[in-house]
Amino acid sequence: MQTRKDDAATPYNQQQDDGSFIGEPGLTKRETFAAIALHGILTEGHYLQAHDSAVAVKLADSLIAELNKREAEESIEKPTNIEKEEWNEES
Length: 91
Prior knowledge:
Layout: E1 12-15, E2 21-24, H1 29-42, H2 52-77, H3 84-90
Antiparallel strand pairs: 1-2
Helix pairs in contact: 1-2
C-alpha cells in the first residue's frame, strides 16, 4: 500500500441523528508528519526560526519517500513461509 502525502492521516466520520454521516478529513499525512517533525525541532530548546517550518516539511516528504521505497522493496522480497527462516538469516 502506497503512502500518499495528501491522504487523510486521521479521518473522522460523525453519524447524525438521521443516520447520515458528516466526514472530516482532518490533516493530511504530510501535514501530520511535518507537525511531528516541527515539534521535535522545537523540543531541542531553541526558538522557532524562519527555516524550521521548511525543514519540517522536507523531513515529512523524506519520510513519505522512504516509506514508499521500503514498501516497494518489501513487496518484492517478501519470503514465503518455507523461505522465511532462510531469509531472516540473510537479513
